[in-house]
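FW: tagging you since you asked about this chain on Friday. Here's the raw sequence from the shared folder, copied in full. Didn't touch anything.
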Amino acid sequence: MGSSSSKAARTLPKEKPSWAGSRTPLKHDSTQETRRSMPSRPLAFENKTDMVEADSKDPQFMSKLSQLGPVRVDHHMRSVRPADSVQQMYRSRLQSEAEALPSQSTRNRLVASSLSELLESRKTVKTQAELRVSAEQYHIDVTKLAELARFINTPSIDESTIVRSTNQDGEETLTMMARWVDPKLET
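HL: got it, structure written out here
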């Protein structure tokens, strides 16, 4: 990183190295040999000649085409549609996004970011009433929140497990353990 003026300049050799070109010996007669091996007939013509016509004919191709016969067009074809399962997936995603909108929020349904915010705020509540108010802000039942919080939580850092280490390059890394935090509710 940094500007190019801070980098060492690349120096190229002043003369050709001794090993340059050592793998491919130079032969002056090689062009004459390739001309001799080429066919004597020309590769292109200005007009169609009999030789060009004969070269363009493919009897096997013509016989296969005649076996197939004329093209049959089905005028009652339907347009190609994606598989129903793919369309159903798109419909369910649109429905989920529509339900997650705040103006049309459905009870007990949250997008991931809102769920993360709710679980994070749940860690700091002190009373059952505060928990109820927090759950109502996100339109979720307290019983559903409790049921969900048994299995899902946001990561919290255990402050006593933080380890700072420095590698050989002088870069510092932090290593820590996560812990499960439940609110300490007053009864």
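FW: The chain has a mean pLDDT of 80.
HL: agreed, and The longest helix spans residues 84-100.
FW: great, closing this out.
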